[in-house]
């Protein structure tokens, strides 16, 4: 994820983050007990683990993160996975939703990527929940534009995205990325591909769509 420049641009991104968190909190409020235990697009995580991870940055101080990272033998992935599972078991679903709403304006951002990456974190993990649940939530265009304009191939390896030889082409926005065989779909679904996600069948079109479809 790239960075924004200028006071107005940053304030717009912060407003988008706050709105996204409040809207996701409302989504979580409306989930049934069964839905909380459904699988998300994050491999190995249910909806409740994703919700716990979304509020990780608000609840863990820098010293505590350092301690958890040492416990995970320096593995960021191992640390976030363990913390998500432990927190999902510790907090109620009401608490997991309220963490997002109560921290809508929290300044947390990932160590790499800045404030745009913070928006990407919230939007993508929100889709990790709503897409497999079939909720049909549409991320507002202004938020998608910020993230799509910041797509950076240098981040693909970190997220496990393999987009070599394909051209992503949005059907609902004027946006495309890459070169090669076309893969078409909704802009928010294509954003998920840049974060290494695979999608349920029927959401993508093109001869290479099967590469990015869940078995």
Q: What descriptors fit this protein?
A:
215 residues, alpha+beta
Structure description:
This protein is of the alpha+beta class and 215 residues long. The chain has a domain at 1-116. It is 53% helix and 7% strand. The protein contains 11 helices and 4 strands. The chain has helices at residues 7-29, 33-36, 47-54, 56-59, 62-71, 76-90, 93-102, 114-133, 141-149, 156-159, 187-194; strands at 166-170, 176-178, 181-185, 204-205. Strands 2-1-3-4 form a 4-stranded mixed beta sheet. A hairpin with a 5-residue loop joins strand 1 and strand 2 (176-178). Helix 1 (7-29) runs parallel beside helix 8 (114-133), helix 3 crosses helix 6 (76-90) and helix 3 (47-54) packs antiparallel against helix 8.
Topology of this protein?
Layout (H helix, E strand, L loop, with lengths): L6 H23 L3 H4 L10 H8 L1 H4 L2 H10 L4 H15 L2 H10 L11 H20 L7 H9 L6 H4 L6 E5 L5 E3 L2 E5 L1 H8 L9 E2 L10
Parallel strand pairs: 1-3
Antiparallel strand pairs: 1-2, 3-4
Helix pairs in contact: 1-7, 1-8, 3-6, 3-7, 3-8
């Amino acid at each position: 994820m790239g960075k924004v420049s200028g006071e107005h641009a940053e304030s717009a991104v912060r407003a988008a983050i706050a709105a996204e968190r409040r809207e996701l909190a409302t989504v979580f409020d409306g989930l049934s007990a069964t839905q909380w235990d459904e699988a998300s697009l994050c491999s190995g995580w249910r909806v409740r683990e994703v919700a716990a991870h979304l509020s990780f940055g608000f609840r863990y101080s820098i010293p505590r993160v350092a301690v958890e990272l040492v416990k995970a033998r320096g593995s960021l992935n191992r640390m976030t996975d363990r913390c998500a599972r432990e927190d999902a078991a510790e907090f109620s679903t009401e608490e997991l939703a309220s963490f997002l709403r109560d921290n809508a304006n929290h300044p947390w951002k990932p160590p790499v990527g800045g404030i745009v990456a913070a928006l990407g974190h919230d939007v993508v993990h929100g889709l990790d929940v709503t897409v497999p649940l079939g909720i049909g939530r549409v991320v507002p265009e202004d938020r998608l534009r910020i993230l799509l304009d910041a797509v950076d191939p240098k981040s693909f390896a970190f997220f496990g995205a393999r987009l070599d030889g394909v051209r992503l082409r949005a059907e609902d926005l004027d946006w495309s990325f890459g070169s090669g065989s076309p893969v078409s779909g909704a802009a928010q679904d294509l954003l998920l591909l840049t974060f290494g996600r695979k999608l349920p069948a029927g959401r993508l079109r093109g001869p290479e769509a099967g590469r990015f479809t869940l078995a």
